[in-house]
Amino acid sequence: MSKGFLLVISGPSGCGKGTLCKKILERNEKLIFSVSATTRMPRRGETNGINYFFINKERFSNMIEEKEFLEYANVHGNLYGTPKQFVLEQVEKGEIVILEIDVQGALQVKEAYPEAVFVFLLPPSMSELKNRIKKRGTESEKDIDIRLKNAFEELKFIDEYDYIVINDELIEAVEKTEAIIIAEKLKVRRLKNILEKIID
Fold first, then answer.
1. Beta partners for 97?
2. What spatial distance separates the first Cα and last Cα of the chain, rounded to whole Å?
3. 130 contacts 148 by C-beta, under 8 angstroms
């Protein structure tokens, strides 16, 4: 069995991270999704424990003090964090865990857990990004402007990532991400135990 790993998918707000991850998980039943904790209110259709763990700020602060997060960040006024224990346990068991987070969080993960695999998801253009955020219908015009400004700032960190996937056609972006997963599974450092069996 090859070693497991953490696949971090991040990019600007509205680039389609959630949709991409959902489709990948539908097509690959063995992959595990890391559910993040957040202090923001659920959006329409979101379920606690499936999309996010929706918790209050006091509980979130306690988890920070207890060092229970692999990463956490303040994004657009709300707190988001990745519970550490679940992710590390699954990777240790040889599982591939998908973590969908913003760029701030991804950079924290890279510092704390550099062996993770990092994918930067991009929209086909910044004007298309604005259209996608508007279509969600969950942000005010002011919020949209903030998200776009943040998106341009986040592009500066693209060199910190291992791969870039442009999310123009969803299925094409999914297939490229699946190709990344296959390539990573075949890396020598993840297959040392299999090599040992062949040599024996």
1. 6, 32
2. 16
3. yes
- 193: its two tokens: 């135990």
Q: 162: number of CA atoms within 13 Å, CB side?
A: 17
Residue 152: CB atoms within 10 Å: 11
| CATH code assigned at 21 | 3.40.50.300
H or E stretch covering 171: helix 170-185
Rounded distance, CA 177 to CA 137, Å?
Answer: 28
In a domain, residue 87? The reply is: no
pLDDT tens digit sequence for 109-128: 999 899 999 999 998 887 77
What is the Cα gyration radius of the chain?
17
Model confidence pTM above 0.85: no
List strand residue ranges (DSSP E) for 13-135, in order.
Answer: 32-33, 36-38, 52-54, 69-75, 78-83, 96-100, 117-122
